[in-house]
Specification:
Blueprint: H1 2-7, H2 11-35, H3 47-68, H4 81-104, H5 110-117, H6 120-131, H7 138-155, H8 158-161, H9 176-203, H10 209-230, H11 242-268, H12 271-276, H13 280-293, H14 299-317, H15 324-331, H16 348-351
Helix pairs in contact: 2-11, 2-13, 3-10, 3-11, 4-9, 4-10, 5-13, 6-7, 6-9, 7-14, 14-15
Amino acid sequence: MCIRDSLKPNVGLVLLVISQFFNSCMVVSTKVLETEDVEAGEEPIKPLQILLVRMLITYLGTLIYMYLNRASIKNVPFGAPPMRKWLALRGFTGFFGVFGMYFSLLYLSISDAVLITFLTPTVTVILAWVVLREKLTRLEVIGSIVSLAGVVLIVRPSFLFGILPTPEGSVESEDPRERLIATIVALVGVLGASAVYIIIRFIGDKAHAILSVSYFSLIVTIISFVGILVIPSMSFQVPKNLKQWLLFGNLGICGFIFQLLLTLGIQKERAGRGSLMSYTQLIYAVFWDVSLWHHWPSFWSWLGMFVILTTTVVVGKFKPRGDATAATRDQETQQVQADDDQVENIPLEELSK
């Protein structure tokens, strides 16, 4: 009874922590599908195909949800006409956000790839300054520069660090050029995720959150399908064995559970506390790297991790008092929740994945 009483006020936090675990399971499935056959000389599953399968399942799920709840969701399935172009733009920019993450997993460890996404709050405050004319403080400028230094520690370019040895059987590429390319694409993904945040803030409560997820999954599905058709190196590959079929199935199942628990957690938890749960992604990422690939982050990765996380927390904590609402939202780019009790405010990071 005492355990139940202590858990009751923290049910939202528990649900959010569990939701991030299922999110990490999707990332692991992606990593395995993209890299498992490379050492054997076989062609791995390409990121676009993984996105196609995952987002098609997600889109079908959003359609089912919308039609089951069409009494409370207006203009199913495409939303109000004035908002459609903005929802479509949200989906288009969201593609870059999720593709950046999926592509970086080809050459970076899970922990490094996830860590780069934590730059999103820093990039967002700059983008908000450019697009929305929001105030940009000196602390935010300094934080942006320091965060980029953290990325350099993760990438470890050879012209600065020389050729560093990579442990045998490592989950990350030994080629500095491949790591650099993966990081650049991941940074493009960060920019895409930040753009999603700006668009979502512009849309506000004029469209239900499920419409944002629906447009996102539909447009990513279309772009991935077209990419597979027109890019020769991206030809569609049928899963070759039971393991790959199970991994694809895991993507869809974990994606559904992730969104369900995430929504329930948002409904039950305050925004400030809930936003902190996004950082459990990094704990799960290190856990998978160590347990599946026996790969501990290097000293430089740990240092980059410390720099980026510390900068994100400091910049989020010391926002100007007069901009309290924006401060809360900017800190929660990883998990935006402007209204504590409404499903409409699904976190940005989750909308852009």
